Amino acid sequence: MNAAVQMNHITKKFGKLYANRDVSLTVERNSIHGIVGENGAGKTTLMKILYGMHPADSGEIVLFGEKVVFHSPKDAIEKRVGMIHQHFTLVPSMTVADNVVLGRPPIRFGVLDKERAWTEVEALCRRCNFQMDLKARVEDLPVGLKQRVEILKALYLGADVLIMDEPTAVLTPQEITGLFETLEKIRNDGTSIILITHKLSEVMDLTDHITVLRAGQVSGNVLTKDTNEVELARMMVGRDVFLQIEKEEQSPGEPVLELEHISCKNAEGVKVLKDVSLTVRRGEIVGIAGVQGNGQTELEDAIAGMDTMYAGSISINGKKVRNTTSPLRRRQLGLGHIPEDRQIAGSAGGASVEDNFLMTLYRQPELGKWGYFSRKTGRELLENQVAQFDIKIPGVKAEGSSLSGGNMQKLIVAREYNLKPQILVAAQPTRGVDIGATEFIHRKLVELRDAGCGVLLISNELSEILSLSDRIMVMYEGKIVGETTSAQADITRLGLWMAGITQEEDKITAAEEKNIAEQPPEQIAENPTDGKGGESA
Fold first, then answer.
1. CA distances from residue 10 to 13, 65, 193 in whole angstroms, order as listed
2. I want to staple 306 with a disulfide (CB 3.0 to 4.6 A). Which of 154, 301, 395, 422 is the partner?
3. Is the pLDDT of residue 532 over 70?
4. Domains in the chain, start-ordered, CATH in brackets?
């Protein structure tokens, strides 16, 4: 038997909803097995069953030829199954070495044997070809190195099967390359890896086999070498999906959003925006790329009027706004806003679906006359958009909280689209939606741009930025550190900017840049920035 994992006829229900229905898959020894599917397809639930976090209602798990039953992650770990979650489970104040051995500390005379712990972690680092400061506190590490600590933790506990849930969500391109090299080395050393991801290019680059889930069932089980992204997308959605949005070249018009020297601090008094200046013109999409947590959220909040404690100047559609100018007034000047956090800033869970849709539209002239708002007209518009955007709702009077995250996101996009904004700030517009809805939202953003709207696209998905943007800027530690056009965009250069490595007056030559790009991610993170990025005024 060459299988590391067999999951046979797994079924799991939550109430009346099937998360997994009669799912079977086989993970070969010494392989990387990809699991892809839309949001809600059952990928994470299936892996949580394998890791002992959920019991299956029916079906069986066979691990290296032995039938097993897990009641908790402890049971799975004892059988050498490890899982690295999308959100890390590290102790920030502890060192790298202490985090790695925390689950099974070596004890001598009743206390932690630090010398043995150090020796074991060093040996593990050599096995994985990791160069790390084991004395460093985790809270001081960049995201890529934190992820390496998680990998070390799982391997230290003896994982022969390693589950990784969306491992590249917050990494730079260089960190992703380093991660893939690590996973291939671990696979070649005898560990079987299961990769949950929504990025089809990554699953094609890294895996040996792919299982596709749709609506809780297996819709495809293929060798990676025998498939392609288009076929995978079709299996995920059940129809052809256009992965690349076609858009014609535009000649941008006058500025519709101007930011001059925007700076602000967070609640702890740390400066998170540092003298940011940029312009978005009518009929263009300007993408803001960067690893999450580099000031993008604060930039969004300052533009939308959610944060009033900023310095600098903002103009919307040619009119300057004050710090105290309300979000409503900014909308009246032509601003549309798809918030990063759809639950807190984008919707009201206790309000009806109808009110969630109309909360920014009810002042529109077509929805009423002489100061009166027509519920009938508003409901007709909602029903039209529900059909057009394929939003699944229990009913117009159902609470907003009854919608899935993806359907709420589509409702918000439909609402802002119908505002016919002059400038749209779209922050993570496709977070949490499936590949079919992503395609639809991308088309709507391009439609707005082609109709003369300026779009400021803030996204952690570099592929989304590259696909949609006319101009691209990169944020790092609260600054714009680089700018390019989509035609001239180079993913290596963008990745260096995202890591804070910029170029000025040939201080980094092309050869030096190639050398930097080939360094392990931890070395890139530790190198000082050689120059300052330019700003767009």
1. 10, 17, 20
2. 301
3. no
4. 3-237 (3.40.50.300), 255-346+419-526 (3.40.50.300)
